[in-house]
Amino acid sequence: MKxxxxxxxxxxxxxxxxxxxxxxxxxxxxxxxxxxxxxxKSLGGALRDxxxxxxxxxxxxxxxxxxxxxxxxxxxxxxxxxxxxxDLTLDAVRQAMGYAAKRVRQVKAGSFTVSVPAAVPKGQSPxxxxxxxxxxxxxxxxxxxxxxxxxxxxxxxEQMTLLGQHKGQMRQLTEGVRRGAATAEAAVFVRDLCNHxxxxxxxxxxxxxxxxxxxxxxxxxxxxxxxxxxxxxxxxLLGVARGSHEPPKFIILEYNGTKKKEERPVVLVGKTITxxxxxxxLKPAENMEHMKADMTGGAEVLASIxxxxxxxxxxRLISILPVAENMPGGRAMKxxxxxxxxxxxxxxxxxxxxEGRLILADALAYAxxxxxxxxxxxxxxxxxxxxALGQFAIGMFGTDQRLKEQVRKAGVKAGERVWEMPLWDExxxxxxxxxxxxxxxxxxxxxxxxxxxxxxxxxxxxxxxxIDIASTDWSERERAYVPKGPTGIGTRLLLxxxxxxxx
Length: 503
Ligand code: BES
Ligand code: ZN
Ligand code: ZN
Fold this sequence. Notes:
Blueprint (H helix, E strand, L loop, with lengths): L4 E6 L9 E8 L8 H7 L3 H7 L10 E5 L8 E9 L5 H17 L4 E5 L10 H15 L18 E6 L5 H26 L7 H15 L2 E5 L1 H7 L2 H7 L7 E8 L9 E5 L1 E5 L19 H15 L5 E11 L10 E4 L5 E4 L6 H12 L6 E6 L3 H7 L4 E5 L2 H14 L3 E3 L17 E2 L7 H10 L7 E5 L5 E2 L9 E2 L4 H12 L1
Parallel strand pairs: 1-6, 2-4, 2-5, 5-6, 9-11, 9-14, 10-11, 13-17, 14-18, 15-16
Antiparallel strand pairs: 3-4, 7-8, 8-11, 12-13, 15-18, 19-20
Helix pairs in contact: 3-4, 4-5, 5-9, 5-14, 6-9, 8-10, 9-14, 10-13, 12-14
């Protein structure tokens, strides 16, 4: 999908020519003096009538299309509901723009114009509002058509114009759009990578994506091949990859946006299983195709470093992707096998389907060599996360209060909220093994917690946060700006954290 171009300018909506003019409205409010009323006047009171007859009320998710018949320069007017003013959040704005962009595409318009809403969420600056608007529009119009002979969903909306009221706003709106376009573009990239089937998006292909990014953005790239991993002693990652004909990869990308060479970096680690069959502990057939998205974490840290470089964020950032395919096979790891991890600790593999924590164990241990200022891993790690949190909250664990708070706040801003879970050492008794330092499953109860606790044994002593996105990485239905299928959720969370950190 080509990312929509977004332009910012000063203008009066009633005077702008446009294929579609989008007007946002809060439920239960009168027409806003500045834009609503001026448009209404030119249309001979049509807006007032629509509101009075309750044909359009301004409820969240509501849209109404109106042909202007030349009464204003814009051909069509699209009313979009923001919901109640008192409940207005950045995410309500993002969602409204998602609905708007989809409706614009439905009517086969290639572009639209929208003013910054008259009502702005409490405590939010124009930068944040413009960012949310850009994100909603780009993410809402997402479609994955790479393998369709006919473009069933309709052609992409190519351009959006964001209208500000006065010149003084321009700098902030432009900055917001710049950030929003970058974060949304990153999430779109993740959705694409996860939508591609596993016969295309193999470990080798992921390595190629990393090569392209490194070349385009001028990043330092290192790719460890199987023999390098053998030399280093990454027994856990190698164990997971054993059943597959696709050789594993270990990808390290580095971006330095600071002048200081010696600044301690933020290190992001993403689980990159290009397909998770479960291995010898084979998964049931139903919904197994979702496991092509078991690489969401890796795609997200890849997209994040690309976006950080494009935004020229002033920080040092390293993204690490342990990449493998989890397959059964003649050489596959078997329940009871013991692997030696890069850290030296041994693990009894009681269930080959708990593979994410194995590849992450080696990646987190590898991350220690960078002495991270903050270490964040993100993974579609446990089915237990889905059970515990449903589809709207992301699981978060961590050792550092400040880092956890930063991630939590970024989640609220991004509309990708995390919920903290306990990382108490008491749970470790569930991970004890009779034959090795630990086992890779924790038995019944607290599955998301025992997985996180397992990781903590490899995450070192510095600030660390673990994010379990198994709950949100795949959506069963289409929402305002979230498609059915791979969602890319977690990408904007990571990026917002990086943006806020470098401000
Ligand atoms: N990739 C899965 C977790 C998952 C499940 C992600 C559903 C997204 C949706 C992971 O590798 C896995 O299979 N975990 C097992 C662990 C168990 C064997 C301890 C699980 O959760 O069932
Ligand atoms: Zn698994
Ligand atoms: Zn998995």
